[in-house]
Amino acid sequence: MSTAPGLFSGRLGLAASRIPHVDRHGLLWLEYGRLSVEEGTLRFVAAESTTLAAGDYAIPYQGVSMILLGPGTSLTQDVLRLCARHGTLIAAVGEGGVKSYTAPPMGQGRSDVARIHALRWADAGKRLDTARRLYAWRFGRILPHRDIEVLRGIEGARLKEAYHVVAQQYGIEWKGRRYDRAHPEQTDIPNQAINHAATFVEAAADLAVAAVGALPPLGFIHEESSNAFTLDIADLYRVDVTLPLAFGAVKAAREHKDESIERIVRKHAAALFRQNKLVATMIDRVKDLFDVDDRDRDA
Q1: Other beta carbons within 10 Å of 10
Q2: Integer Cα distance of 228 and 225 in angstroms
């Protein structure tokens, strides 16, 4: 392990010393190490991992929006104090962001996204327009319908067809969507894989929604759930991410019979989320939904 702290490389998005606070994403993924404060800056002593070489790193917290603490990490009380003072969020997550174990304070000292979100949700017309925009992204075109139940019905039929198409692409026998909340383990392997994949994609959406300061309970398509808006965002990726992730894991399970389907989906999700920068992509999607452009804003 080196003795002199070094800066994280550009692959983590921290090559520049000043990055606009809201626009930069600034998602810093840490795992297998100890985070502390030394001489007024963050210090991470890391063990060897698949994402980071062993070493002693100095972290320019001024360029970080959210620190995501993965497996094997610990931190000191001073880290919480310093990050709270400078508006840097901290979240405990599963490997690659496949689980969200904490709910960090929303946003970074600004309420613009939350205010826009609340105003659009409170106005029945704007709420429907926002739901139609979400559906337009999912369908690839704007539908003329202005009845939310009709839109939900169309989406249900589209999803039913998508299950068959994606399953066929991966050579998986598909017998239909079945989900017993009381006994999820009693469903067949493809359905179990979809359940796990959906949970992991929802965790990524949780992080994105928290990062921009949107309001999780105020959904435009989903209702009643305390994370309804998170589900709205996660569903944008159901066909292109969740289903390929699930059926790809089922295919891989044929060669890894000693591993549970949950573990296989988790490993595939962690790699996919990092490779595709899924959380950052979701952050941009939320900003697009609320027409927030903060590219010229300083921290």
Answers
A1: 9
A2: 5
Q: Which CATH architecture has domain 6-92?
A: Ribosomal Protein L15; Chain: K; domain 2 (3.100)
Give which of 248, 275, 242, 274 is closest to 261, Cα–Cα.
248
Strand-strand pairing, 55-59 and 41-46: antiparallel
Tokens representing residue 205 in the block: 């959406």
Distance spanning both ends of the chain, measured CA to CA: 33
CATH for 112-289 is: 1.20.120.920
Q: In angstroms, rounded to a whole number, what is the distance separating the alpha carbons of residues 191 and 201?
A: 15
Query: Which pTM was predicted?
Result: 0.76
Identify the residue whose tokens are 């019979």.
257
For the chain, give every domain's residue range. Answer: 6-92, 112-289
108-156 pLDDT per residue, tens: 556 889 999 999 999 999 999 999 999 999 988 877 788 888 888 888 8
Give the bridge partners for 42, in sequence order.
37, 59
